[in-house]
Amino acid sequence: MRTTNKYIVMAIGLGLVTLSACGSSSGSGGDSKTVTLVSHDSWAVSKSVIADFEKESGYQVKVLEDGDAGQAVNKAILTKDNPQGDVFFGVDNTLLSRALDNGLFQSYEAKGADLIKPEYRVDEDKHRVTPVDTGDICVNYDKAWFSEHKLTPPRSFADLIKPAYKNLLVTENAATSSPGLGFLLGSAAAYGDDNWPDYWKKLKANGVKVVDGWEQAYNEEFSGSAGGKKAKADRPLVVSYASSPPAEVIYADPRPTTAPTGVATGTCFRQVEYAGLLSNARNTEGGKALLDFMLTKTFQDDMPMNMFVYPVREGAEVPEEFTKYGPQAEDPETMDPAKIAAHRDQWVKSWTSLLLK
């Protein structure tokens, strides 16, 4: 899966501190005063916000970060009978069915669920997961490169297969990376179940480069990122997030007046992330309290600047930097989770045969 939008900040390497463990407790999920959150590596929250939760709830929060989101989901499934923690955060709509079909979560309707925007609600009959955040996977472009070469940046999937953009795009492996998978699903939504392989054949012929994960693509191969500039990267197009340009502004010193990167808005696929109470969780009450907390306005307001995602709660505040430099796509590609479940594994297998063999 993904390294989530939060990895934008971590991979840029410009100083965001993520929360590995909070509070004074070093106990496990079996400690009734400790609630353990299992997550991908991109979990991040303000210390003051988590401290408020600990003070109000009486629980100490312990966070176990377990690699890339896809890796974390798979490990959570393998350990579901004896889970590492109480709550899992970071399964998104591209892998949701895998988690649900394997019985990863137990039912719990979090307080505040009625305030979740309708378009992000799923599994409303069983309430096994709680929507927490959303973001758009999109191709990003290096503004300076395109200006220097007097070339208009691409805007759509169709543009990317034009000769003018040959050897410019780097994307992530759809079998190992969340944004890579999201980009594949976006192309399938745009071109249809039968025609997306032909699109990827053309993309391959046009010199697309495939790497394992987001950090390598964005920080080592993409010429427009802070990391890419240091690495002297030579690809001015990368599959990343609509929230990547705000990160490039916010963590630059000094801050530029405009974002150095832009978004090809016709290439976006909407991703939604969920959290859930793990089956066989030792501290179910603590887990429920933590899920409730994730839907509070305090947490939802705090989340964008820490994890570079958008809130899902009605009335939550979106930072000005997001609306200015990384607004959500007006018409992103989407796909029903049931359809993703029906086709994902076969599509990834076909994609791998097309691109990597």
Task: Indicate the radius of gyration in whole angstroms.
Answer: 20 Å
Largest sheet geometry: 10 strands, mixed
User: How far apart, in Å, are the first and last alpha carbons?
Assistant: 21 Å
Q: What are the secondary-structure elements, in order, as H or E?
A: HEHEHEHEEHEHHEHHEHEHHEHH
Count of strand segments? 10
Which regions are unreliable across 5 or more consecutive residues at pLDDT < 50?
Answer: 1-29
Structural class: alpha/beta
The portion of residues assigned to helices is: 25-40%
Q: Work out the helix count.
A: 14
Q: Mean pLDDT, rounded to whole units?
A: 90
Percent of residues in β-strands: 15-25%
General form = globular
Key features?
18% strand, alpha/beta
Short description:
Helices cover 37% and strands 18% of the residues. It is α/β, with parallel strands linked by helices and 357 residues long.
Describe the structure in your own words.
It is globular, with a radius of gyration of 20 Å. α2 links the parallel β1 and β2. Helices cover 37% and strands 18% of the residues. Strands 1, 2, 3, 4, 5, 6, 7, 8, 9 and 10 form a ten-stranded mixed beta sheet that branches. The longest helix is centred in the last third of the chain and has 20 residues. It has 357 residues and is of the alpha/beta class.
Give the topology, please.
Blueprint: H1 7-12, E1 34-39, H2 47-57, E2 60-65, H3 69-78, E3 87-92, H4 96-101, E4 105-106, E5 130-142, H5 143-148, E6 169-172, H6 178-191, H7 196-205, E7 209-211, H8 214-221, H9 226-230, E8 237-241, H10 244-250, E9 261-278, H11 284-294, H12 297-307, E10 310-311, H13 320-325, H14 337-356
Parallel strand pairs: 1-2, 1-3, 6-7, 6-8
Antiparallel strand pairs: 3-9, 4-9, 5-8, 5-9, 5-10
Helix pairs in contact: 6-7, 7-14
